[in-house]
C-alpha cells in the first residue's frame, strides 16, 4: 500500500514538472495557451502584464484559482482525490517559479506542438494512476457525481474562452496555434489514459458477490450481474456490468486486482447513456 501511494505521489510530482516545462519553455513566450486552469492562469497573467503593467506569475495565479476548487473537492469529492490535486498544483506552482521562462524555439508551431505533447504526458500520467491535476478535473468530478452533466461541455467552454481571448487580445494566429496545442494535449492524454467522460466495464469473475460489495464500498455506481459461461472451459462464472466515470477507472482496476486478480475485464468507450445513471445520494431501486 505504501509503495503504491509513494509511486502515485512521485508520478504526480513528475507530471507537475512536465506541465511547468511545457509552460515555461514552450507556451508562455509564444503566447500559446494551455488547457483548463493552467491556460486560464497563463492568459490572466499575460493580460495583467501587457494591459495593466502588473506582474503576477502564471504559477501564483494557478494556485489562487485552485483554492476554491480545493475546498469544493474536499467536501464533495473526497480527501484522497483532493490531496493529490493539492500536491499537483503546489508542485506545478513551485516548478513554474523555479524554472526560468525560456524560448527554446522561435517557431510558434513547434512551441505549440511540443508544449502540447509535454503537457499531455504530464496530465495523462497523473490520470492513469488515479490522481488529479486539480482545476477542471475536480469540477468535472463534482458534476459527474452530483448531476451527471456533460463534462466535455465545461472543458470546451473554458478552453473556448481562452482561444477567443488569445485571438482578440493578441494575434488571430495565436488563437489558431492555441487550438493546435489543445488538440495535441487532448490526443496525448487520450493515448495515455482516456478523455471519454464515461466508460463501460464488463468483468468476468468467480467472485461476483465479493467484487460487487468491494466496488459499492468505494463507488456510488449501480452494477448489473449477469450469468456467464466460459466457452472453452465450460466454467460457470458471472459478469459484472457497470458504467463509471473516467476518474474512477484507476480505483476500479485496483479493486479488481485486490479481490480477484484472475478476473477478465473489458473496458470500452461509452458514447452516451439513456435512462438511470446512479448519482451520489440516490439509492438503487
From TrEMBL:
Name of a matching Pfam family: DUF2179
Subcellular location: Cell membrane
Record keywords, A-Z: Cell membrane, Membrane, Transmembrane, Transmembrane helix
Top-level lineage group: Bacteria
Segments forming domain DUF2179: 221-275
InterPro entries: DUF2179, N-reg_PII/ATP_PRibTrfase_C, UPF0750_membrane, YitT
Membrane topology of the entry: Multi-pass membrane protein
Listed name of the protein: YitT family protein
Amino acid at each position: 500500500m505504501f509503495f503504491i501511494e509513494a509511486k502515485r505521489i512521485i508520478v504526480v510530482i513528475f507530471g507537475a514538472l512536465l506541465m511547468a516545462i511545457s509552460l515555461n519553455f514552450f507556451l508562455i513566450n509564444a503566447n500559446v495557451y494551455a488547457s483548463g486552469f493552467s491556460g486560464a492562469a497563463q492568459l490572466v497573467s499575460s493580460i495583467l502584464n501587457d494591459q495593466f503593467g502588473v506582474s503576477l506569475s502564471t504559477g501564483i495565479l494557478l494556485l489562487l484559482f485552485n483554492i476554491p476548487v480545493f475546498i469544493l473537492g474536499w467536501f464533495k469529492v473526497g480527501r484522497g482525490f483532493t490531496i493529490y490535486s493539492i500536491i499537483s498544483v503546489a508542485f506545478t506552482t513551485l516548478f513554474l517559479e523555479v524554472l526560468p521562462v525560456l524560448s527554446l524555439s522561435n517557431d510558434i508551431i513547434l512551441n505549440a506542438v511540443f508544449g502540447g505533447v509535454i503537457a499531455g504526458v504530464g496530465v495523462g500520467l497523473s490520470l492513469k494512476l488515479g490522481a488529479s491535476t486539480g482545476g477542471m478535473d475536480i469540477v468535472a468530478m463534482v458534476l459527474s457525481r452530483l448531476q451527471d452533466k456533460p463534462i466535455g461541455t465545461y472543458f470546451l467552454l473554458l478552453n473556448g474562452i481562452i482561444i477567443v481571448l488569445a485571438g482578440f487580445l493578441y494575434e488571430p494566429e495565436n488563437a489558431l496555434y492555441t487550438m493546435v496545442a489543445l488538440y495535441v494535449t487532448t490526443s496525448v492524454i487520450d493515448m495515455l489514459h482516456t478523455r471519454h467522460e464515461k466508460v463501460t466495464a464488463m468483468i468476468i469473475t468467480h467472485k461476483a458477490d465479493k467484487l460487487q460489495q468491494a466496488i459499492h464500498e468505494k463507488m456510488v455506481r449501480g452494477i448489473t450481474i449477469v450469468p456467464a459461461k466460459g466457452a472453452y472451459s465450460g466454467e460457470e462464472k458471472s459478469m459484472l456490468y457497470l458504467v463509471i466515470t473516467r476518474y474512477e477507472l484507476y480505483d476500479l482496476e485496483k479493486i479488481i486486482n485486490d479481490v480477484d486478480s484472475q478476473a477478465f475485464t473489458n473496458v470500452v468507450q461509452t458514447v452516451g447513456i439513456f435512462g438511470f445513471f446512479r448519482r451520489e445520494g440516490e439509492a438503487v431501486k
